[in-house]
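Support request, priority: normal
Reporter: lab tech (M.K.)
Component: structure prediction queue

Hi team, I submitted a job for Fe-S cluster assembly protein SufB from Ignicoccus islandicus DSM 13165 yesterday, and the status page still shows it as pending. I've pasted the exact input below so you can check whether something in the sequence is tripping the parser. The sequence length should be 439 residues. Please let me know if I need to resubmit or if it's stuck on your end.
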Amino acid sequence: MKSSYSILKYYIDEISKKLKEPEWAYKLRLKAAELYDKVPTPPWMPEDFDLEAFAAKAAQEEFVKPSEDQIPEWYKTILDRIGVPDIEQSMLAGVTVMVNENVVYEAQKRELRKKGVILKSLDEAVREHPDIVKKFLHRAQTPESHKLAALHVALRRGGTFVYVPKGVRVPFPVQAFFVITEEQLAQTEHTLIIADERSYLHFIEGCIVPIPAPYSVHLGGSEFYALTGSRLRVSSLENWLGEVVHVPVKGAEVHENAQLEELGVALGGIRIGMRPKIRLVGKGAKVSYNNIAFLKRRMSSWSGSTVIHEAPKTRSSVVNRSVMKDQSFEEFLGEIIVKKDARDVIGHQACNTLLLNDGAKNVTIPKLVSEVAEADLAHEGTVGRIGEEQVFYLRSMGFDEHEAIQMLTIGFIDPLIQDLPADYVRAIREIVKMTLGAS
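Reply from support: The job had stalled in the queue. We restarted it manually and it finished. Here are the results:
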């Protein structure tokens, strides 16, 4: 019987050779493979997970990046389906689309290049910008966390790299979309974003399956670094069709007087596991992490986050809002940890759940840990149904019951998405409406 390490090393060698990556990147993969059997198994890992089959799928795609005039019509159709405006006429800063694991198109505005912003595939960045990438890659998202984290580091391929130089403010959103088009596909892209000192960036990433897939695994990863005095906004939108297992691994660092604002919206799929670790490592660092999930049928979700306050005067806010129906299940684990060198700390987390019927189940587990007295930590949680009085009022205004439930559900999540571009707010609302109308 093959060992986990031998299985992983075989496919690591294959991936690394195709990517022509440097020795240091190859060694990161081998370290993760060595850890795979030593680290814990997360509760959201599928019980029937086949390591060799997953690794084979992660390694099998060819690395072909066509030129702009070679973009096929099926690709443009996918963009239309996920609501990305026509690339040539778009006012967006940049669009990077990755179908399966391959980056097939990149559109950059001239302004980005003039400002020195680097936007390219992570595979290219590993080779072309090792001085930057080596310093940050897998520092916030490490293989030691659990088996899926180790597996992602070992088989990482594709994804987006964004570097914003010191003092540069990008006045328009930069976007990346990841698309699964094949059944039984394992996707392991990695997003690495670095906002250097006093810079500003809003990054939007979307992950979709445009057609129902009986079984696919999305084991993407992301790392966000907000360096001294910077402000980094990240909005992640996922809309999965079919039996997709969505188990991304994420990490972030926020430095002195920097601010990270992260929003995640997860719609669809069959199994979701996502608990990022966010470290506040500099004095005055702030993080706002908001997550929205819509769970139906027999979907299972393990949500939450771990926020670690490592410096004085740091602030954190975590808000999780879930809409649940049918026989869906969610476990929210929210951790706020204050280290001994952190003073005058404020940390707040909230888990708000809207149950649309009997049978759906939510479990909330708050964990507040402080090594100092000068910490103000709080947790709040609510689980409830849509009020009959609210429905009655809307019906008296001429709406039917279904329309009333749609409006109240959208009103429940709207406070967290209102700062997104208008096109995205409309798209999320429409997807929620369609989901409420589905059985």
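The chain has a mean pLDDT of 84. Residues 275-383 form one domain. Let us know if anything else looks off. Ticket resolved.
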